[in-house]
Amino acid sequence: MIKLLKEIILPIAVISSTIVGVGLFSLPYIASKVGFVIMLGYFLVLGVIVTIIHLIFGELSLATPDFKRLPGFAKVHLGEWAKKITFFSTVFGISGAILAYLIVGGEFLNSLLSPIFGGSNSFYTYIYFSLGAVLIFFGIKAVAKIGLWALILFFLILFAIFLRGSHIIYTSNFTAFPFQLSDLFLPYGPILFSLSGAALIPEAEEMLKGNKQHLKKVIVIATLIPIIIYLFFIYLIWGITGPDTTQSALTGLKNYLGDGIVNMALFLGFLTTFTSFIALGLTLKKILWYDFKVQKNLAWFLTCFVPLGLFILGFQSFIRVIGLVGAIAIGIDGTLILLMYRKLLLKREEIKKSLLVFPLIFVFAFGIIYELIYFLK
């Protein structure tokens, strides 16, 4: 029994720790715009949808040879065209995530250092970028490897903030109804972005080895843990800062708590975003280099400077960026996973069951169209 628990805990940790990322910081602000009831409704609906997609991908993973990832799955089940689309969604998704980390990481660094040294938010974003770009160029993986520990320390600091600030968590913030019709779909993209972890399911399946029958339990638990973490984070930050909640969550705490504990949270927030920035940058560089056969230095340049260029051009709204990335990248991947599953069901002659994928495909298609309109307006 103990051995089985150990074998299950590791894949749960791998999936959950990958799901919890930069999207976390957007959630309190979004909650402050739409209200607790609507936010909870989105978590309920999208949590169920994402769990279904994860379970479907888990079933596909069990039906597909090991040591393949989403592009490999797409090629096996749908063909070369689907593999090319997954490469696009992967590159788009990672580039967008890098831009999101650049935006929020620069804000954390600015909040930490500008009271001491002065300087603008953009100045600290460029410092953040420069440090990251150098490490990505030289392929230094050691920084990325400390990300999980930084994340653990970050949550310990959040718990300390909860203990220190529990007396100023106002329940009236949760009963407020700030909702405006224009914000009705605001949570869709960011929450979808924040919950998605399908990419790690094949790795979790491989970790289970002789206990692959437990994959469904692993997937459900690993998807549920981030939802609990997110709701706690919303409760903590929004409960303290209320209508003053900022897009990056932590920067608004300084007006309510002492600088010491908030600066520690900002530092660990910076560290977690920075290590993820490096990890994603190294991943995208390798995808461009190995899969697209882009020359190594050009792959580095595209990885780092395309997100920076977008930032300079004015793409600096953290919420809008992760909303667009979540709706499009996760929407495309989710649709392809559903089409793969339908193909598998048709092979098994489960015709009626195969029709159930279309309502979910409609949700993803609607989300993509809406986010494009919202982003461009």
Q: What can you see in these coordinates?
A:
The chain is mostly helical. The chain has a single domain, classed as Amino acid/polyamine transporter I (Up-down Bundle), CATH 1.20.1740. The protein contains 17 helices and no strands. α2 packs across α3, α4 packs parallel to α15 and α6 runs antiparallel to α14. It is globular, with a radius of gyration of 21 Å. The model has no long low-confidence stretch (mean pLDDT 87).
Largest sheet: none
Low-pLDDT ranges: none
Determine the N-to-C terminus distance: 55 Å
Proportion in helices: over 70%
Helix and strand composition category: mainly alpha
- Give me the Rg, rounded: 21 Å
Compute the number of strand runs: 0
Mean pLDDT: 87
General shape = globular
* Total tally of structural domains: 1
CATH class placement: Mainly Alpha
Strand content: under 5%
The CATH topology comes to Amino acid/polyamine transporter I
Query: What's the architecture, going by CATH?
Result: Up-down Bundle
Question: Helices and strands, in N-to-C order?
Answer: HHHHHHHHHHHHHHHHH
- How would you name the oligomeric state of the polypeptide chains in this document? single chain
User: Helical element count?
Assistant: 17
